[in-house]
UniProtKB/TrEMBL annotation:
GO molecular function ontology, one term from the record: lyase activity
Entry keyword set: Lyase
Gene3D superfamilies cross-referenced by the UniProt entry: 2-enoyl-CoA Hydratase, Chain A, domain 1 (3.90.226.10), Lyase 2-enoyl-coa Hydratase, Chain A, domain 2 (1.10.12.10)
Taxon lineage: Bacteria, Pseudomonadati, Pseudomonadota, Alphaproteobacteria, Hyphomicrobiales
UniProt source species: Vineibacter terrae
Any one GO biological process: fatty acid beta-oxidation
SUPFAM superfamilies: ClpP/crotonase
Protein's recorded name: Carnitinyl-CoA dehydratase
Amino acid sequence: MNLTEEVLFDTEDGVAVITLNRPRQLNAINAGLIKGLRQAWDRFEASPELKVAILTGSGERAFCAGMDLKEAAGQRLRVPPRDFVPVLGDTVHVSKPVIAAVNGLAYAGGWLLAQMCDLCIAADHAVFGITEAKVGRGMPWAAPLTRMLPQRIVMELLLTGQPLTAQRGYELGYVNAVVPAAELRAHALGMARTIAGNAPLTVKAARELVYLSAEMGRSAGLRAAHHLFESVYLSEDALEGPQAFAEKRPPQWRGR
């Protein structure tokens, strides 16, 4: 299903697959793609039957090459407004897991779109680059990278603009898995189905725990985590899981 010409939205087994669809332009970010992404995240969050989303790109060359510089040049854009691009965890609220399936190069804003996802699977030919220094633009969105990569790696990426291979990203812990391009969608769907099959309240709280604790010290993080999971322990699902295990049957999650 097309949300706009630039963004496709498909569903499979409780998983939303959101595809950037400008392959001739290396899926560069333009006004139509921005509009389509906003609609996609709204639809995903509002659909209780959708448990996990996958964000990927059309074609074999690029996940996303970043901002469409031809369009930006025509607009003579100076300081982008905070909500210029819909960014998960910043300008857009999504409470469910999102997996980036990076099918090619992810440069500048394309790196941002992969970075904002909770998990990242990359094709073996994918490369990641923060290239703003080469075109005189900025990358304020890269601030969270200092929690995701070593400081000197971040410094090198930002100052040189040189790309990082998918394999190197995996070695540094930035990428969860590197797979042959032909297997990328299947691998991402497999991970998504695994997550979708787990207890939804636990998954939601665990996701929040990771982000919450990253912004706190050890003691504060532990206190917040105990509070976060109290409602999970008191849920019907917390009784259903052990009962299903004892009865040797799949659990029937109710999300309450």
